[in-house]
Amino acid sequence: MLSSFETGAVEAIGRLLDDFEKSVSEELEDLIRVQRQLCLEDAKLNILSTTDAVNLTVTQQQRRISRTMAPRIQEFMEDAYSKAVKEPGGHGSYRRRKDRIREFLEIEENRNEMFEGGAKVIMDRLDEVAVAVGNALYESVGTALAQKIEVNLSVLWEVVLDDPAQVRARKNMAEVAAGVSDQVSLWLEAAWHQYECPEQDDELTDEDFGFDDELRDEDFDVGSDSDYS
Predict the structure, then answer these.
(1) Which end of the chain is more exposed for a tag (fewer CB within 10 A), N or C?
(2) pTM of the prediction?
(3) pLDDT at 102 over 80
């Protein structure tokens, strides 16, 4: 029943992996081929086991639906059965009983009511089966398998590339991150200072830092230019 789903799901996953393989750098081509094959094997095993379980469940539910229909029909036919068993015994009694049941079924209203009632029972049960199958497929393929494929592909990000361009890119990114961190720290410090001293004049003076106006360069041991040559 789910053979078309199995084929379509494997093909869809294969196309996604093909697109992913085309997007990686040349340094990862060999590794992505290995991981792609692992992902496909996991997908086939997962989908096969899932469809087998779903088919078994559907078969069991079909039998359950059939067993549910029998009591419903028996209940509806109860009046006809009662009339049939009241027929006197003896020669021709079996035929007369069949006639009573046939007469009941020949009434269109009775047939329609029995069909509609039975159809409603079947459709309600089929809706339950469809929801259960959808949930099972989503949980197994849409969640568990997706996470497994993600784990298989995650090893690509664990490889440290020594390509010069990659090294430069990482270095530049680290510098940018450090600059952003420093700038954020300055903003936070300024905001905190403004919070602590809301009425202070915006123009800071030496007094704000506890500096003495009489201090001269000679008061600081900064060394001569020759010390840094």
Answers:
(1) C
(2) 0.50
(3) yes
